[in-house]
Design goal:
By secondary structure, the protein is of the alpha/beta class. The protein folds into two domains: 2-222 and 413-469, Metallo-beta-lactamase, Chain A (4-Layer Sandwich); 228-407, Rossmann fold. It is 31% helix and 22% strand. It has helices at residues 41-49, 69-72, 75-80, 91-118, 133-139, 230-244, 257-270, 284-294, 302-307, 327-335, 354-361, 380-385, 417-425, 440-453; strands at 2-5, 17-23, 26-32, 61-63, 87-90, 143-146, 151-155, 158-164, 172-180, 183-189, 212-216, 247-251, 279-281, 321-323, 340-344, 368-371, 391-394, 397-400, 404-407, 432-436, 458-460, 467-469. The radius of gyration is 23 Å and the shape is globular. It binds zinc ion (2 copies).
Length: 470
């Protein structure tokens, strides 16, 4: 049996790993995730365009960990290329994938329009969008939802179980039992490992005993701020900005982060810890994602259940919060006086409605920009949070950064070094650990810590397309 790394090998995007198994009825090939490569546009476009296998004939099943695009984002392309076997995931991941893949199709269509308009005649080839919204709709017919913790067949000789990953709603770690030539082999895959104490979702489950573990390593060398500090910081900035009569502008990812903040604001409002100021969720995508969240109470943790569901109280709706729809409604917020909270995408301020709000408000010292997520290099978000930078360019105009800028890092949905150590040190029976979904900088110190703590365990840090015999 082999594991082949088609992506997220010494990088954090493009998650796609193949289990290649010799069964009595021939070779079975199963993909764990089928995600988009992100990052530098020209490099990602090349990696995304081609699969190193024939989707129409080679792959027997896809098992999907969660609905982030670096894990699910190439499924429409797989379908478009002829793949017609099933994609198995949790019920919530299935519904979230539908919304997120549609949005991804829309972005690919828009990107293509931009290329055609501005870059025609350049060195870049125009082959049409990677996939369209229609491709995303079409591929949903092969998705099959499953419950957490049940065992079910993927194909002959291969069973899988979804266990809680604690990362986003619907996210799962995968546990496989594989019967190959009469011998049982157990493989675990973390997908993206989450953290304890995140709002809304349950804490990560314990990985059961496995022989081989494929483990993410995104923050293998970093410690996050304590999640318990996040809500306090949110409260403090809202009170402070409201006193100034300003606007709190929160760039937030539409999937999970927006809902977590709405939920925390709701808890703060119920205990009368924040003033009565309007809260606008100005993101049609976040609104659609929130609707999916409301359909999946099976993913909620005990706290949410006791404080909200048991009292027939909707965690994502309360008197202060308004979900804006049309562009006109969004534009109206520009001329309305504060205080107010505006939450809008995109998370790193590279697209979406947040740019319009920043354009209108970043040069006003009454306002606050509250960064609640990771800002990658070379994004507007990174330039906003960088204290050394005093002016920023938004829609080709230069603005002075006079608003107060505050970063809250405690909301991260990814395990940090101690969470990763905790998982890996407690998995019984493991003989081989394959580190994925990380850059060398985080992965290598993590590997050293495992080596020191677990004698005899083999650690592999493969390159893309490397085949690992197990
Ligand atoms: Zn993720
Ligand atoms: Zn990921």
């Amino acid at each position: 049996m082999k594991i082949i790394l088609h992506g997220a090998a010494r990088e954090v995007t493009g998650s796609c790993h193949e289990l290649r198994i010799e069964t009595d009825s021939g070779t079975k090939r199963i993909l764990l995730d089928c995600g988009l490569f992100q990052g530098k546009r020209s490099e990602a476009a090349v990696k995304n365009a081609e699969f190193p296998f024939d989707p129409a004939t080679d792959i027997d099943a896809v098992v999907l960990t969660h609905a982030h695009m670096d894990h699910a984002g190439r499924i429409p392309l797989l379908y478009k290329s002829g793949y017609r076997n099933k994609v198995i995931c949790t019920y919530a991941t299935k519904d979230l994938s539908e919304v997120m893949l549609m949005d991804s199709g829309y972005i690919h269509e828009k990107d293509e329009e931009y290329f055609q308009k501005h870059l025609k005649g350049s060195m870049i080839n125009f082959d049409g969008p990677l996939y369209t919204q229609q491709d995303a709709i079409d591929c949903m017919e092969i998705f099959q939802g499953r419950n957490y913790n049940d065992w079910f067949d993927v194909c002959e000789g291969v069973k899988v179980q979804f266990i809680e990953a604690g990362h986003i709603v619907g996210a799962a770690m995968l546990v496989f039992e594989i019967l190959e030539k009469g011998k049982l082999h157990r493989v675990g895959f973390t997908g993206d490992l989450g953290r304890n104490m995140l709002p809304i979702i349950r804490d990560p489950a314990q990985m059961p005993p496995v022989d081989t573990l494929i483990c993410e390593s995104t923050y293998g060398n970093r410690a996050h701020d304590d999640i318990a500090t996040a809500k306090g910081c949110l409260k403090e900035m809202i009170i402070k900005t409201a006193k100034r009569g300003g606007k709190v502008m929160i760039p937030a990812f539409s999937l999970e982060r927006t809902q977590e903040i709405v939920y925390d604001l709701h808890v703060l409002w119920d205990s009368k810890e924040i003033p009565a100021i309007p809260i606008y969720i100005d993101s049609p995508l976040a609104t659609r994602v929130t609707e999916v969240f409301m359909k999946h109470p099976e993913c909620y943790d005990k706290e949410l259940y006791e404080n909200f569901l048991a009292k027939a109280h909707n965690p994502f709706k309360f008197s202060l919060v308004k979900y804006t729809g049309s562009v006109e409604e969004s534009k109206k917020l520009n001329t309305m006086p504060g205080p107010m909270v505006i939450m809008a995408g995109a998370g790193m301020c590279e697209a979406g409605r947040i740019r319009h709000h920043l354009k209108n408000g970043i040069d006003d010292p009454k306002n606050t920009v509250l960064a609640v997520g990771y800002m990658a290099e070379n994004t507007l978000g990174r330039r906003i949070v960088d204290p050394e930078i005093h002016e920023v360019k938004i829609f080709d105009e230069i603005f002075q950064k006079k608003a107060e800028v505050v970063s809250v890092n405690a909301y991260s949905g990814h395990a940090d070094m101690s969470d990763l150590d905790n998982l890996v040190m407690n998995v019984k029976d493991v003989k081989k650990i394959i580190l994925v979904h990380g850059e060398s900088e985080g992965m290598e110190p993590f590997a050293t810590r495992i080596k020191n703590a677990r004698e005899g365990v083999e650690i592999v840090m493969p390159e893309r397309e490397e085949e690992i015999e197990i």
